[in-house]
Amino acid sequence: MKFNDIYVVDDDKVFHFIIKKLLENNNINVRPDFFENGLLAINGLKKKIIQGENLPDLILLDINMPVLDGWQFLEEFKVLKSKLNKDVIIYIVSSSDNKSDLNKAKTFQDEVKDYYLKPMTSEDLKAMFSN
């Protein structure tokens, strides 16, 4: 699938920098928007829906964030999903390999395509963008 617009939802600015560099180094030409928590990302989605703007094709979502964490984001996203005019693919990208988080991600199988562990590698990114 070809992605044009992506959301990176993570409170770690180092992760933002790493994603930017991985995209550049792998010649992946997309327009990333960066959000430091789930609330900012959900509000960004709502704004785009109201204004009829292009929605992101892909969301890279951390689960451990302040304000509105990844799980809360996914609950909000479920509510918004019916208002979206296209499919938005979500990958969880987390440093947590806790079994409870991995199992919880499976409860969002209609929203979450896959779960990646940090640190992300070029191979991870290529796999995401080749699916």
UniProtKB/TrEMBL annotation:
UniProt keyword Ubl conjugation, yes or no: no
Annotated signal peptide: none
Keywords from the named record: Phosphoprotein
The keyword Hydrolase is annotated on this UniProt entry: no
GO term, biological process aspect, one: phosphorelay signal transduction system
Modified residues (4-aspartylphosphate): D62
InterPro entries: CheY-like_superfamily, Sig_transdc_resp-reg_receiver, TCS_response_regulator
A Pfam entry, by short name: Response_reg
UniProt-listed SUPFAM superfamilies: CheY-like
All copies of domain Response regulatory, residue ranges: 5-131
UniProt-listed PANTHER family: RESPONSE REGULATOR RCP1, RESPONSE REGULATOR RCP1-RELATED
Descriptive protein name: Response regulator
Organism of this sequence: Flavobacterium capsici
Lineage, highest ranks first: Bacteria, Pseudomonadati, Bacteroidota, Flavobacteriia, Flavobacteriales
